[in-house]
Specification:
Elements: H1 5-23, E1 28-32, H2 35-45, E2 49-53, H3 68-76, E3 79-82, H4 92-98, E4 104-106, H5 134-151, H6 156-181, E5 190-195, H7 199-205, E6 208-213, H8 223-236, E7 240-244, H9 250-261, E8 267-272, H10 287-301
Parallel strand pairs: 1-2, 1-3, 3-4, 5-6, 7-8
Helix pairs in contact: 2-5, 2-6, 5-6, 6-10, 8-9
Length: 319
């Protein structure tokens, strides 16, 4: 058989067609409720996904209500991912309706029940803030990987490889956090914040966590609660409390003023990312950057030793 330039070109083109077709497939349209989920989808999906986060920096997911634009985006998506565990409490009916037409996955519910923290006030409900412990977020990452594979099995190898790399980074983040937070003196390991978003963090790293409000920001901190916490700050000599980027600092300021009236000075140890990450395009606007920031601010605010600019040298100066 004589091989001409044309026959060789035709044969080569035929061999490349499956790969070219795969490369030309449009990215999956993914809608994620929170920034933490959206960032994790982008890490695992890579160029194969086009991700839209409904809730940006400073947005409280406990109180968030979907807009008409959100509903349209979810209805047109290939996959919708939400936290679940009653975090997006105001959206549950809409998500249930969307699930009749589009795959919808509550990714935090991949965390085994025996690893969840039970809700103080409601039976059979759990603290939804699982992203505060990178070891638990591994389960969420794998749930996202599996959801992507279910929707697009042809790109399974990409999703699996990216998930493995991300889980390895989460393991490194966990080790780093243990080391830095381990430098906080035992007597100072009390973390006071606006609401109970840090219980998984506290359990993982040996901190007593005190939230002025409950697990949901929808709960109110009454005068009795504030008075009790002021007593605790004074009696135990707590020197620092922390504000949150997505929660009003009003209740924290009330604690500081109450302690001052009792002759005890309390300062703000820094601002933490609780239910939302930092600005898009910044290191703090990624899941790893969010946790790195919190670890640095908490450790520094409570007397620990903090490496300059965090785990990867990417934190903003002064974080």
């Amino acid at each position: 058989m004589t091989f001409t330039r044309r026959t060789v070109l035709a044969a080569t083109t035929a061999l490349l067609l499956p790969f070219q077709a795969l490369a030309d497939v449009a990215p999956l349209k993914i809608v994620a409720t929170t920034g933490m989920i959206a960032d994790t989808v982008e890490r695992i999906g890579g160029d194969a996904v086009d991700v839209r986060a409904l809730m940006g920096p400073g947005v409280d997911p406990h109180a968030y209500r979907q807009t008409r634009t959100d509903i349209v985006a979810m209805a047109r998506a290939d996959l919708v991912l939400w936290n679940g565990l009653y975090l997006e409490a105001q959206m549950e009916d809409v998500l249930a309706d969307i699930s009749r037409r589009v795959p919808v996955v509550a990714v935090a519910e991949a965390v085994p029940e025996d690893q969840r923290i039970a809700h103080d006030d409601y039976a059979d409900r759990f603290d939804p803030h699982v992203w505060m412990d990178p070891s638990l977020w591994q389960s969420v990452a794998l749930s996202i990987r599996d959801a992507l594979v279910d929707v697009d099995p042809d790109r399974k190898d990409v999703f699996v490889a990216n998930a493995e790399a991300f889980v390895a980074e989460l393991e490194a983040l966990e080790s780093y956090s243990d080391r830095v937070l381990g430098s906080v003196p035992d007597a100072a390991r009390v973390l006071v914040t606006a609401h109970d978003a840090f219980n998984y963090f506290g359990r993982a790293h040996g901190f007593e966590v005190v939230g002025i409000q409950g697990i949901s920001t929808e709960s109110e901190a009454g005068l009795n609660r504030t008075s009790e916490l002021v007593d605790m700050l004074v009696e135990r000599g707590v020197a620092s409390v922390f504000v949150e980027s997505s929660v009003s600092d009003r209740s924290i300021r009330a604690l500081i003023e109450g302690a001052a009236a009792r002759g005890h000075e309390v300062r703000i140890g820094g601002e933490l990312y609780s239910d939302a990450m930092g600005a898009p395009g910044t290191y703090e606007g990624t899941y790893v950057g969010m946790i790195d920031h919190n670890v640095s601010v908490i450790s520094g605010g409570l007397g620990g030793v903090v490496p300059e600019r965090g785990m990867n040298g990417r934190l903003k100066a002064g974080s």
